[in-house]
Automatic annotation (TrEMBL):
GO terms for biological process: metal ion transport. The keyword Lipoprotein does not apply. Gene3D superfamilies: Nitrogenase molybdenum iron protein domain (3.40.50.1980). Residues 162-189 form a coiled coil. InterPro entries: Bact_metal-bind_prot9, EF_Hand_1_Ca_BS, ZnuA-like. The lineage of its organism: Bacteria, Bacillati, Bacillota, Clostridia, Lachnospirales. It comes from Lachnobacterium bovis. One of its GO terms (molecular function) is metal ion binding. This is Zinc transport system substrate-binding protein. Keywords: Coiled coil, Signal, Transport.
Length: 303
């Protein structure tokens, strides 16, 4: 009988040992799985995607963009059910901030588990008619600060990849410095510092080029320009001795043609860089193309 109890006790001990081993293995596997799970980072729109894609290059993360590349600025963007589902499953949401994403406040309230990165933190915003201008990516100086803000916050939210983020941000910033150097060189060639813009985003580029924006006619796909507004532009051209107007060709070509017919102004069509290919170098290439075009047009005009 005693021997039978001993045998039974050994069996119980063996079962208990197996239970403990299985529990330890299960917990270890669960922790390992959580550690290996890559973070999902969602960006609000194209400029934020491009900036973030440079920062996370080589990191074990998944990067997705909320809006399609054909979408420009997000002033009237409405979240779809699919958008909300994507945000709810994300770990980090990268926003331009400064009022660009009208839905950002709702995201903060609705998805407490999602870390929100506002890339506009600490940036001095330009104002137009007492409203802040949120198109900060269009100034190389302010865009560089956005990149630094994103990298810094990503490093806090995802310390496992912090070294990668900070290294990539530094490398990207070195490339952006070259754009700023080109801007300074271009600025010295501009004989007239007064300018008109047909897209408020260009105010940041104008600031980089040390230009004084005298008049803004903000155009988009729904904007119908009246004869009176064209007359106002022509009046400002004469009053402020304007030589150049920066505009987006997609929405301003007809207005630009009318202005050029009635004045000696040169309308220079550039890209607001708010849509395009999902390519890491798209901002660098796009801004350089803008600067090259401005330099070419002013050189032609001066000659």
């Amino acid at each position: 009988m005693k021997k039978r109890y001993q045998t039974f006790g050994c069996i119980l001990l063996a079962i208990l040992a197996m239970f403990v081993i299985c529990t330890v293995v299960s917990v270890s596997f669960d922790k390992s799985s959580k550690k290996q799970k890559s973070k999902l980072i969602v960006t609000s729109f194209y400029p934020m995607y491009v900036a973030t894609s440079n920062i996370v290059d080589g990191a074990d993360v998944e990067l997705k963009n909320l809006s399609e590349p054909k979408t420009g600025c997000l002033h009237d963007f409405q979240l779809t059910t699919q958008d909300m589902k994507l945000i709810s499953t994300s770990d980090i949401f990268v926003a331009n901030g400064a009022g660009m994403e009208s839905f950002l406040e709702d995201i903060v309230k609705e998805y407490k588990n999602v870390s929100i990165i506002d890339s506009s933190k600490g940036i001095n915003l330009l104002k137009e008619e007492d409203e802040e201008n949120s198109h900060i990516w269009m100034g190389t100086k302010t865009y560089r600060q956005q990149v630094k803000n994103i990298a810094k916050q990503l490093s806090k939210d995802d310390p496992d990849n912090a070294k990668i983020y900070m290294k990539n941000a530094k490398l990207y910033d070195e490339k952006l410095k070259k754009l700023q150097k080109q801007e300074k060189e271009l600025s010295s060639k501009l004989t007239s510092k007064n300018i008109i813009i047909f897209h408020e985003a260009f105010a940041y580029l104008a600031e980089d080029l040390d230009l004084d924006v005298k008049y803004v006619l903000d155009l988009d796909e729904e904007r119908q320009v009246s004869a009176g507004e064209i007359a106002d532009v022509l009046s400002q051209v004469k009053k402020n001795k304007i030589e150049y107007i920066l505009a987006e060709k997609q929405y301003a070509k007809s207005v630009g043609d009318a202005i050029e017919r009635e004045s000696n102004v040169k309308v220079i069509y550039i890209d607001p860089l708010n849509r395009g290919k999902y390519d890491k170098n798209s901002y660098l290439d796009g801004m350089k193309k803008n600067l090259d075009k401005i330099e070419k047009e002013i050189t032609n005009k001066q000659n």
